[in-house]
Amino acid sequence: MTAPPLRRPDRELPATWVVRLIDDFAGRYIAFRREMAGWRYLVLMSALLYPSSRLLHEAGHLTAGLLLGADIEGVHVGGSWPLDTAVVVASVKVRALDLYLRVEPNLLAGGSMRWDTRGVWWVVRPLLAAAGPAVTFLVGHFAWRAYVRDPGRRWALALYAVNLALFLFGFVIPLPGTDGLQFWRMVLRRE
């Protein structure tokens, strides 16, 4: 089940419509990852997000919805954090899945993590990559707040737009294999 296509209302600010569009995009992405990884991966993602109470709150909703079998495709990440929560949650989830897919098969086979250079990199890389979403989160949050307080601040809207472009560029690139292609097919499907 896919979300209905979004149509831009005539009286709605362009930036507000973009936020709603990304909100829908993030919801589709979460649903896509749910189909691929299952509840164990989402619980792992929640553990990785534990240091932030706000993100833990969001992750708790997703985990609860998944364990209860609820449809979390239309999860709302708007409000005063219009894009930021989606950026951090989705990006860290990608990195967590990468770590999960690489480490778990070895553990299930009765082995252990090989702490050579390659093994350490598997653990460190997702953590380093999370710094990118954190910066995106901060920049997007404060730029959006500045624009809302004073719509005349064109620089804030421009900064938000650049931040959004970087987010979209980094959203699909980290996906392993053909996941990116499969995901875009799902996004574009209007069944």
How far is the first residue's CA from the last residue's CA? Answer: 7 Å
Quote the average pLDDT.
Answer: 51
Number of continuous helical runs = 8
Largest sheet entry: none
- Helices and strands, in order, run as HHHHHHHH
Description:
Keywords: Membrane, Transmembrane, Transmembrane helix. This is Peptidase M50 domain-containing protein. The chain crosses the membrane at residues 122-144, 156-176. 71% of the residues lie in helices and 0% in strands. The radius of gyration is 18 Å and the shape is globular. With 191 residues, it is mainly α. The termini are close together. The chain is built from 8 helices and no strands.
Can you summarize this structure?
With about 190 residues, this protein is mainly α. About 70% of the residues lie in helices and about 0% in strands. It has one domain.
Can you give keywords for this protein?
single chain, 0% strand, mainly alpha, 191 residues, 8 helices
Write the layout of secondary structure elements.
Blueprint: H1 14-37, H2 39-48, H3 53-67, H4 84-108, H5 117-129, H6 131-149, H7 154-172, H8 179-188
